[in-house]
Specification:
Layout lengths: L19 E4 L15 H14 L3 E5 L5 H13 L4 E6 L3 H11 L5 E8 L2 H8 L3 H18 L2 E7 L6 H14 L3 E3 L9 H14 L7 E5 L7 H10 L4 E4 L13 H10 L15 H12 L20 H9 L27 H10 L6 H17 L5 H14 L4 E9 L6 E9 L2 E9 L2 H12 L5 E9 L8 E9 L2 E9 L2 H28 L2
Parallel strand pairs: 1-2, 1-8, 2-3, 3-4, 4-5, 5-6, 6-7, 7-8
Antiparallel strand pairs: 9-10, 10-11, 12-13, 13-14
Length: 526
């Protein structure tokens, strides 16, 4: 009988089985509706991705906007280790703009793409196959004239006819592409199909040994991670993924799931990555904070319940031996077991050390701000949990550059209406005060904000949940606002639900303002 107490350990993967991790959180991830990030937030995410060992950071789509160009260029200047990629369509001016953005990187890459499936060629491109082949050669050649590292993607590759796909791949490599990406753009394929696709292309394309093959899978049918790993079995050695699996529609393959599947199942996945897995939880929390996209509780690897055990049978097993119900340790992904160790008597040094163990490295000003808010919270709560600290630090990160800031709020509520809110706010440095009534305390609070900052947006989502247990738990509020088809989501936490509600709404307004500025800048640029 096989002993299954300890997960099997295999020999280290060979150098040939090293998998390149290509993170597209800042590009494909940001295209998720409502998940836009500020310039400073992108720099912070990029710095963490670089520190944790991501091989290639796709920093943005430079031609899309002035803001995207500037963020890609600045990330290229600052990044110490990773290759910095910019995305480009097959248009020559797109490629030139992309080259300009990545030129300061220690290692820059141009990632250009073109649709190859019959449905895309007919309805999207309105081009014949031979015209598409010519565009592939022209775009890759142009990119290769700028940089040595060129990636070409066959958009909607899994719905492309295999003969034509092989012709496209061969032409792209001959023109100078060093990486070939065959994406499952619409999340349509299955693991066995995807593995077979890569095997077939690599076997049939005569110059396939001149390029690294890459997978890029969307999660429309919930198979993005499985398909990505199947692509490795078919011969691919680069995986394109995002933190928390964020991305368009149902999202992308989740980086943390890819990495831990390889780390945990080396017996059947004989590959290696350069990712420091102990930073996965921190990366998840940072991306969640800057995008205001909460991580579902039962999310694999980084969800709140990923290492929680409530069933009596499971708890009994865990007490006897952790491997009865855990195939990896919490520490392996950066989850701390500690809790309830901080309180109102804790000092600055202890707070700084606590943040470090939780994966936060704050500058002096940010640390001072976080410590002041921690002390205020500790005075209001009996106990301060790790989750409380995470919430207040992440909220500070998200609000560091806000133009609209809440100063104070008082609300009169109860069975005798109407409810009334009095609010003091700083708007571009000017302090304003307003009182408003509403159909309930939340409505009154939001009406006060509208009076102070006149606007006409739609409230698409208002959601409240407790960060921790107990009647003094912090309330975490999520708000999604929509304006002219553009949606933003924001979160805030506070022991007072109404204060958290106001903070979340104000943060969403700040994000909308930044979107307007970006659009105005694009219009001004012509």
């Amino acid at each position: 009988m096989t002993d299954t107490t300890t997960p099997p350990v295999s020999a280290p993967a060979s150098k040939a089985d090293r998998v390149i991790i290509f993170d597209t959180t800042l590009r494909d991830g940001e295209q998720c509706p409502g998940a836009s990030m500020t310039f400073e937030e992108k720099l912070e995410v990029a710095a963490l991705l670089d520190e944790m060992g991501v091989d290639v950071i796709e920093a943005g789509f430079p031609i899309a906007s002035i803001g995207d160009f500037e963020s890609v260029a600045e990330i290229a200047r600052r990044t110490k280790n990773a290759t910095i990629a910019g995305l480009s369509r097959a248009a020559l001016n797109d490629i030139d703009r992309c080259a300009e953005a990545v030129k300061h990187a220690r290692r820059g890459r141009i990632h250009t793409f073109l649709s190859t499936s019959p449905v895309h060629m007919k309805y999207k491109l309105q081009k014949e196959p031979e015209q598409v082949l010519e565009m592939i050669v022209a775009s890759v050649t142009r990119a290769r004239n700028h940089v040595d590292d060129v990636e070409w993607s066959s958009e909607d590759g899994t719905r492309t006819e295999i003969d034509f796909l092989c012709r496209c791949v061969e032409a792209a490599i001959k023109a100078g592409a060093t990486t070939i990406n065959i994406p499952d753009t619409v999340g349509y394929t299955t693991p066995s199909e995807y593995e077979r696709l890569f095997r077939t292309v690599i076997e049939r394309v005569p110059n396939s040994d001149k390029a690294v093959f890459s997978v890029h899978c969307h999660d429309d049918l919930g198979m993005a991670v499985a398909n990505s790993l199947a692509g490795l079995a078919g011969g691919a050695r680069q995986i394109e993924c995002t933190i928390n699996g964020i991305g368009e529609r149902a999202g992308n393959a989740a980086l943390e799931e890819i990495v831990m599947a390889i780390n945990t199942r080396a017996d059947v996945l004989p590959y290696a990555t350069g990712i420091d897995a102990t930073m996965l939880t921190r990366a998840s929390k940072l991306v969640s904070a800057v995008t205001s996209f909460p991580v579902q509780y039962n999310k694999a690897i980084v969800g709140r319940n990923a290492f929680a055990h409530e069933s009596g049978i499971h708890q009994d097993g865990m007490l006897k031996h952790t491997q009865t119900y855990e195939i990896m340790t919490p520490e392996s992904v950066g989850v701390s077991k500690t809790s309830l160790v901080m309180g109102k008597h804790s000092g600055r040094a202890a707070f700084r050390d606590k943040l470090k163990t939780m994966g936060y490295e704050l500058g002096e000003n940010a640390l001072n701000d976080a410590f002041a808010r921690f002390k205020d919270l500790a005075d209001r709560k009996k106990v301060v949990y790790d989750e409380d600290i995470e919430a207040l630090v992440d909220q500070g990160i998200a609000a560091a550059h806000d133009r609209i800031k809440l100063i104070s709020l008082s609300v009169i509520a109860g069975t005798r209406g109407p409810q009334r809110a009095t609010m003091k706010m700083s708007v571009d440095g000017e302090v304003k005060t307003e009182e408003a009534e509403g159909n309930g305390p939340v409505d009154a609070t939001f009406n006060a904000i509208k009076a102070l900052v006149p606007h006409n947006v739609k409230l698409d989502l208002y959601q409240v949940h407790a960060v921790t247990e107990g009647t003094d738990a912090q309330a975490e509020v999520s708000v999604r606002l929509e304006e002219n088809g553009k949606a933003v989501t924001a979160r805030a936490a506070d022991p007072d639900t109404l204060v958290a509600s106001a903070q979340a709404y104000i943060t969403a307004l700040n994000k909308l303002q930044m979107k307007r500025q970006t659009l105005n800048a694009q219009s001004a640029a012509g």
